[in-house]
Design brief:
This protein is an alpha+beta fold and 245 residues long. 19% of the residues lie in helices and 24% in strands. It has helices spanning 8-17, 29-46, 65-68, 71-81, 108-111, and strands spanning 19-22, 85-95, 103-106, 122-128, 139-141, 153-155, 165-167, 176-177, 185-189, 194-196, 205-214, 230-233.
Length: 245
């Protein structure tokens, strides 16, 4: 049974602009409470580690697969990349109040270069755990920049940024800010230029990214050591190695 989906206009907008805001709760209040509790556990376990070390938490806690492989999410993803869906990764991202660093302009695809055979059908669902606003460093994108995915980068200071490089010569006046309430989400193409300003507010900004790819793309085992992917829906078209097959 379909839980929710996107309209034809939604899909067209995503294809043209490279992103979409879904301003409705994905999960019920009860499921969001469970997810938030898991996140708080992960946050407590990390100790003094940086929040960006909360990558692939579903490798450590498979309770998260109840969310990552859920119809609530996959019914949003399928209209964008098709019916054959692999779970690529997930990541708890947390910007602490006042001291949360900026996320420089980047493309996700640039960090995954060589790990998959193609990048044209990879989508990230960015689920808000906390309210996400301009003041606390919400995500922002440059619309329509998802045609390439491999821009030119330059080195930057990691004391004030979460990454050591950023895309050169980005026109920030074109940026669209993703302001979201808890349980709402954004969806963006892996190739789109995006980032976030620092969190200078007194309010935490945390989200859960859930990333999916069309199984038409092949995931190369030798380029992904100790990395696990799941077949989320449909068929394994390219013959990648999924843990649940």
């Amino acid at each position: 049974m379909k839980t929710q989906s996107l309209t034809q206009d939604d899909v067209k907008f995503y294809q043209e602009q490279g992103y979409l805001l879904y301003k409705k709760p994905i999960f019920s209040a009860e499921k969001m409470r469970i997810l938030t509790d898991i996140f708080e556990e992960q946050l407590a376990m990390k100790g003094s580690k940086l929040s960006d070390e909360l990558d692939t938490p579903h490798f450590r806690d498979e309770r998260l697969l109840d969310f990552l492989l859920s119809d609530e999410v996959l019914d949003l993803v399928e209209p964008l990349i098709g019916p054959n869906i692999g779970l690529w990764s997930s990541h708890f991202i947390c910007k602490d109040p006042v001291v949360g660093r900026a996320t420089p302009w980047h493309e996700d695809s640039a960090y995954w270069d060589g790990r998959l055979s193609s990048f044209d059908k990879i989508v990230t669902v960015w689920l808000a755990i906390d309210r996400s606003t301009k003041e606390n460093g919400c995500m922002r994108v440059i619309p329509g920049t998802h045609g390439n995915g491999f821009s030119e980068y330059e080195d930057i200071d990691t004391h004030t940024n979460t990454f050591s490089t950023q895309i050169k010569n980005v026109d920030e006046s074109q940026a669209v800010y993703f302001e979201l309430e808890p349980a709402e989400c954004s969806l963006h193409d892996s190739r789109i230029i995006h980032g976030a300003t620092p969190n200078t507010s007194p309010y935490r900004r945390c989200g859960y990214t859930m990333r999916y790819f069309s199984t038409e793309a092949e995931v190369f085992p030798d380029k992904n050591p100790n990395f696990k992917i799941w077949l989320a829906r449909g068929k394994n078209i390219a013959g990648s190695i999924f843990v649940n097959e």
